[in-house]
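Form 12-C: Joint structure prediction
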Amino acid sequence: MAAQKPSIPKGTRDFSPIEMVRRNYIFDTIKEVFCRYGYQAIETPAMENLSTLLGKYGDEGDRLLFKILNSGNYLDKVDEHTIKEKDQAGLSRQISEKGLRYDLTVPFARYVVQHRNEITFPFKRYQIQPVWRADRPQRGRYREFFQCDVDVIGSDSLLNEVELIQIIDDIFSKLNIKAVVKLNNRKILAGIAEVIGESDNFGHITVAIDKLEKIGIEKVNEELLGRGISQEAVDKLQPILKMEGKLKEKFPKLMEILKTSPTGIKGCEETMTVMRHLKDLGIKAKFELDLTLARGLDYYTGAIIEVKAADVEIGSICGGGRYDDLTGVFGLEGVSGVGISFGADRIYDVLSELNGFPSGFRASTKVMFVNFGEEEVKYCLPVIDRVRKAGINAELFPDAAKMKKQMSWANSNAIPFTVMAGTEEIKSKKFMLKDMTTGEQKLLSESEIIEKLK
RNA sequence: GUGGAUGUAGCUCAGUUGGUUAGAGCGCUAGAUUGUGGUUCUAGAGGUCGCCGGUUCAAAUCCGGUCUUCCACCCCA
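Section 2 - Result
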């Protein structure tokens, strides 16, 4: 057999032991906070029916879905016409009916509708699983990555928004990441579109102004005009785009601009309520109103939340918002939800860059027993068992390899202690314990070793 | 999906205008040290120069294609 060069698909990664320790540190921190606020874990399958996924994320989202080829002789079932006409979309529909999930929110909505009889609302759940996107990989962008979602479904209360931001604050404080929370509201954006008389172009407007920070006001205006938005509307938009100042000054200005749009006013009031609570709570993270924050996902209807790391340029590390009718498409109307998603992989990248991982928690083994051969193993084995039962992580080197080999193995695995027990030690019923950091060694009894390593 | 850069030892990288046997550091293996790792010294192993094709007497080096990784756009965690 010809040796093939091993590789993994573009945008995917292996996680080696050190990375796993670090990833688990992130997951554990996140889980702990989720649980603290009363959220319960669920999981859903890696693959969903395409009918569940398609049409929920906009055209761009549909394009980025990984589709799974049907099993069996799928080609037999394709009609001649499709093949002759090279109808790609038609073909894809006929040969693929499943896809890898694109996020955790839509599968969650599906879950809620499917299990509605078992659920007592409001339902608070968290879900930590990988998702897949057929995107082109880049810094902080992978084709397989983990999302950590928390959602409350079946409650309109703005207290949920507040709670989610508290969770954001808790998690990033624990991880020592300076977070900036950006808030906006789809209703404000809808109000703006309404006030400038371009409600029909809501999508184009939000996408364009989302780029304000990146490309500047001139280019945004160009793009708006290019998208068929009237000069008059663009002119009307200018004071909103240029609005500056503190929150206290921004809101009255915004209310004034939006006064003819009840929706806009509502959005403004909602956002003010949330922010007032955050202020009272003394949130550590910076939070700000960002009118340019749009977020592409089609299903958001109220609050929009996005978190960036203050010290690392990597895109958002957490994002989410309120969706009033996500379950509607699956046949459950009038259930509002709000949720956010933490990007574990980007958080990992941020911590790497900041050197923010706690040090010195690499090896889990506390002590390694050197293997000198059959007799010595017989002498050590029961002792190792008792050491473990005393709650000390211990292991025996599996082969009676050269001492040098065994010691350097312990060394490269950063194991802090080794025990040597050969003929001499067996005779005196003792063990030679060596501290690998200082090089010091002492002849001790079993109970003294357990005492020392505890 | 569009445009740009990149690929040489396990890792990080040198490699001249195309010219003989492709180098360094780290790591790895062995010995100095037969019951002692981490320091030191000595020796050694390890490369289809991403892959396929072309130009040439001759290609790591030039050309085309392809894949990977990275960057920008699009979009997003």
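Section 3 - Comments
Chain A has a mean pLDDT of 89. Chain A has two domains: 17-65+102-353, 367-453.
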